[in-house]
Amino acid sequence: MRIFITLVIALFIINSCFSQSFKAPFTTNLSTDQLNLSPSNIDLQQESTGKIFIGNIEGLIVKSGKNYEPFNINQNSVINGLFCTSLNQIYFASNKSFGYFKSNLRGQLKTQFIETNAETRIRRIQGLNDSIVFLSREALYIYHKGNLKELKSYSRHNQNILVSENKIYVKEVNEPIKYIYNDKLILTKDTLFKPEYLLAVPFSFGGKSYFFSHPDYELFVLNDSQLTIKNIFLDRLLRNQIKKSIPYNALQIDSTLAISTRKEGVLILEEDSTYYFLNESNRLISNITAGITKDTQDNLWISTQNGIAISEIISRWQHWNTSNNLPLFINRVIKANGNTYISSMEDMFLKKNDKWVKVDNLKGRVFGLGVLDSIFLAAAPDQGLFQIKDSVAVKVTDINNPWTTDSYENGKTIIPSEDNGVYVLDKNLKTKLINNTKIGTPYTVKYINDSTAWLSIKWEGLYKINLKQDTATLEFFNEKHGIPKTSEIDIIKLENNLAVFATSKGFYQLNPHPNKDSTDFFIPVPYLNIKKPILKAAVDNQQNIWYATTNSYNEQVIKKLKHLAPNKYEDDSQGLQRFPNQIVNHIYPDPDEVGVIWIAGTKGLYKYDENIDVDFTLPFKTIMNRVSTGDSIIFHGFYSVENETGAPSFVDYQPDAYIPTLSYSNNNIKFEFSSSAYTYEEKNTYSYYLKGVDESWSNWNRRTQKEYSNLAPGKYIFQLKSKNLYGTEGKPTSYTFIIEAPWYLTTWAKIFFIVAGLLGIWVIVMLYNYRLRKHRKHLKLLVADRTFEVLSQKKEIELQYKKLSEQTEELKLQSEQIELKNRELEESQEEVLQINDTLEELNKQLEKKVEKRTAKIKLTLEKLKQTNKELDTFIYKASHDLKGPLSRILGLASLAKIETPSVKNIQYLDMIEHTSKDMDLLLSKLTQVHEIFNQHPKIVPLLVEEIIEEIKLKLNYLYSSEESEFVFNSTVNEPIYADHQLLYTVLFNLIENSLIYKNPDAQEPHQIKVSISKEGGQINIKIKDNGIGIKSDLLDAIFDMFYRASDRSKGSGLGLYLVKIAVEKMKGSIQVESTYLKHTTFNIKLPG
């Protein structure tokens, strides 16, 4: 399918009119000085393990990792051609010989020459199936399965060979094209077609090959099935370009065709019928090019006269810098009136006719670029405000130090000036100063809506511009208001006119509910959860956010947040990883092309087009470049295995024959590695694991070598994997090696050590016995000396014994006297014991009397409890039973009022009714006392605010919002746990008292404050009012039953008593504080 699509694209290209495009892909140059080689590189090939082979005038260069290593093929040999087969065999052709490469068991690259009787210069190499064709001027050599056949040229002037799908074609100078069949050269049908040379083979698939002829530079197709040659029409302009550049080689990469030339670098033909040249004008190291190849990441490798170049032609990126006559430091980018402009620290440039041209009449720094209707404006701090007409700058006004600009939606633009304040410019180019505040150095201004714009000031903060008819007011904000301190703050506008600020700690927005002190006037944008510094930011027409930030290596990178839905974004930054590290000055989404952004930086200008289809998952391989121990290299990076087709194949695995055995003295080992992902390979990362040493795989890092020291004897496998800058993992690799045990750890050495140890023990035992015998003799002499000393001491002891006997007699006499004294003490002690027994008897009698009296007291208490319970029950039943008659009295009083309407009777009836209600209230509270004493609390979650609302409704006859104000404050955001009825009783009686005992003479309005807090596992409820208060000498008695603290009290005196017993029932406590005629506060503490 892919071949069919490519063929269609190719035929489309061939039959279309081409136009030159303005492209500049990333290109990396490596000069001959950097490679330490002679100039004139001729051919390139990438073999399947990932290494790049480069044919050079001095021999061969191999890129392995970051290194370019030279290999000398033969003395004064020039590599004219390289060819890599499908089996990964590498053949070479030099000016004196030809052959193939292989490796020895240390991984060193070696050459194997193919023997031939003729000394000839090979011009080209091609392969087909298992055969390799070497073309010289005089003959054609076919190498097949180790055998070489020679076909002599008819004209002895061979020029080129073409390989189609199943044929090899030979071109001799001024001779028809022939093909090889049964080791013979056979003419094609078009025998009259005799171009002098064939110069390139752009396409070769589907049974067809396309090539250019010389000197006419026409494009021909060779059809295998018909063996005919057909000329295809080619656009004249493109044909002239090809003719002028002299094509040398061609290569198809995806649907793009690259043609190396001898004068103009590399010609790139693209599927959209556009073409461009990679040459010295856009950073190619030389216009003289030869061999070209592609790597596994679709990068184009170019051999030139002055070095090697790698160009990323299949890429979303383009790059312009000083090679394109641009300044290195770009400030701003903008699209205006269909043209692209850039500004710098020196000049302003316009993209015109595929070139960057300077804008006349404008020199120096330009930081602000804006469009007002169709008027393109440029703000130059050192010169003023200019209108740009095509490539000419015309001064509009002499505003001092204008730095930036942004347009209204009503035909005006805001221009902040460092010296004078804020101006407005209308579409008639008339300016008006709307605020003269000296604001500092402006950075960004962003219009939000008809009444608001925001202005950022370098190093200082933000101004909110409140726009009015002809004036504006400014409000200043900085880190004191919650915006992180940043040198430059970009301002972007998201959907619903939301202003977002790019700061050193992420994206910030205005806080819809700031504190009164405005310390949190700015807060992070909740749905843009980025905590890294946002260095630059911009929003495209699809509300995608493009921004610059830093990565873990402190490199500046570009990121994209893709807009999915209102307030919903996701990271979509994979293709942006290619951006080179530098300071980003400006990000500009292209208003005319969806998915295209421009980036101005300190290394030039960049264009990124996410619409270009690039496969970021192309496979690549992890490469083991070198393994060394100390100064000795034990592996040079190549594995090859023999096969039946002739040359050995290079492989990416380690054959058993390549596993080295190292001596124990070489147990310090270093691995050097890389990856075949050559796109910005500095950002490749690696992870490794040495089995038996490392506990797990290492973290991903950019180090390309790893050392291990003091490894124990044994077999080791060093495993390695790589990841490219897009996060794609390559094929892993490994290296196995064995470290021998030292001689002193071998089995024979261990046996020797055991025998030697036993002999050593025997010698030690014998020496010990000899020493012991000698020691015994010494002891005998010592005993004789000590015996004499003992006899002498015996005589002296006997003398001392006599003296001791005399002293013993004296001691016996003294002992008798002591015994007499002891008898007297024993008699006294017996008297004390008799007295003690008498006291113990008295104590027992006393304890019996106490027990009897305690039993009587317990019995009395039980009777009191029973009496109290009966009294309580009596009061409860009496109260309950009295309520019935009271209700009937109230009913009769109400009926009497209706039937006897005289004034005097109504007064008596009112008094009866009022007294009955007081009696009813007293009975209700007595009933509540009984219920509280007999109630078991049911702890449930409660909301105090809801209970207070219930009480307010119940007490509406005492409460009105004009006379009293309730204030409720809670720091507890969850329900509290208590008994509903008990808590209701407490709050009801306290609030009722607060309403009853208002201070009628107070100047301030009556207020009841209820606050709830939680501290130390307790719930604190505080009820405070500014009523008449309680005198200090009455505070201790207010919780007693039937106690009234005020003459104004008409109640029963049971309210606060009910409060107290209800709080205690909930295992809480209550305290009161009061200042007479000022306020009263009740503090209730309940278990949390």
TrEMBL record:
CDD domains: HATPase, HisKA
Annotated TM spans: 748-770
Catalytic activity annotation: ATP + protein L-histidine = ADP + protein N-phospho-L-histidine
Top-level taxon in the UniProt lineage: Bacteria
Gene3D superfamilies assigned: 1.10.287.130, Histidine kinase-like ATPase, C-terminal domain (3.30.565.10), Immunoglobulins (2.60.40.10), YVTN repeat-like/Quinoprotein amine dehydrogenase (2.130.10.10)
Transmembrane helix found in the keyword field: yes
SUPFAM superfamilies, per the entry: ATPase domain of HSP90 chaperone/DNA topoisomerase II/histidine kinase, Homodimeric domain of signal transducing histidine kinase
Protein name: histidine kinase
Organism in which the protein naturally occurs: Marivirga atlantica
